[in-house]
Amino acid sequence: MASARFFAAASFAQTQTKAQWPALADQLKEEYPGRQVQAGTALEQLVKDNQDFSILREDEKSDTRRYPAWLRVWWRKAHPELKYSAEDPTGVL
């Protein structure tokens, strides 16, 4: 019985995909509903320059806020003095 539970748990774990940060190509395609970031623009460069997702929290990969990851990176690079916790995502407290 214990082995059956183990195999069921292992099978479930394999089917669950961990949330991933979006690929750059996807970010450039899906930035605005029905529109994509135009190649060669300042916006494209801004997106490309803010791909260091290591400064974001893991739980932000799957949160429901509608701020793109690159925008969060850009903001945090500009405001390192704030503390960004899951309990206070505003960074004020």
Could you explain how this protein is built, in words?
The chain has helices at residues 2-15, 24-29, 42-49, 69-78. By secondary structure, the chain is mostly helical. It has one domain (19-93). The protein is globular. The model is unreliable at 11-15 (pLDDT under 50).
- Stretches where pLDDT is under 50 for at least 5 consecutive residues are 11-15
Overall tally of structural domains: 1
- Look at the structure and give the mean pLDDT: 81
The structural class is mainly alpha
Rg over C-alpha atoms, rounded to the nearest angstrom: 18 Å
What is the 3D shape? Answer: globular
Q: Beta-strand percentage?
A: under 5%
Counting DSSP H or I runs of 4 or more residues, the number of helices is 4
The number of distinct β-strands equals 0
What composes the largest sheet? none
Q: Please write the string of helix (H) and strand (E) elements.
A: HHHH
Name some characteristics of this structure:
93 residues, mainly alpha, 41% helix, 0% strand
Gist?
The chain is mainly alpha-helical.
Write the layout of secondary structure elements.
Elements: H1 2-15, H2 24-29, H3 42-49, H4 69-78
